[in-house]
Amino acid sequence: DLRALQHYVTAGDEYKNLHPDTLILDVTHSNLKQRHIEIRFDKHTTISTLRDKVYQQTGTPPHFQHLQFHSSPTLNSAPLWEIPPEMDSTRMLGYYSLSHGMTCYCIDLDPHSGSKNGGYEDTS
Predict the structure, then answer these.
(1) Residue 67 CB partners (closer than 8 Å, separation 6+)
(2) pLDDT tens across 10-47, in order?
(3) Cα–Cα–Cα angle for 68, 34, 73, nearest 5°?
(4) Looking at the whole model, is its pTM more than 0.90?
(5) Phi and psi at residue 47, in whole multiples of 5°?
């Protein structure tokens, strides 16, 4: 339907009706093919709370998460921010000047991770 297409193209900023403290990120993982898209966070969310959310989504415990923030979902460019597991996790997301649509990429540092080699995705 051409009218629906026209509305889609001219709709403008898809994030314009969000509260100013809301942040929408995609979450990806080094061992998983799946992407968790458009996860909503508050800019006052601490890195510790973000790590807990990543743990719920991916199964990687917070003390094995090396987080990277990328401006695009392709991860082709260098990360804007890197937060290793030993770094202070009390800073809030707003500190990092993140914007909607960025990607939080979790690198699993656990040598015995259950997600290694598609362990959580291979259902054969």
Answers:
(1) 47, 50, 51, 54, 81, 82, 83, 104, 105, 106, 107
(2) 665 677 788 899 999 999 999 988 888 889 999 999 99
(3) 45
(4) no
(5) -60, -35
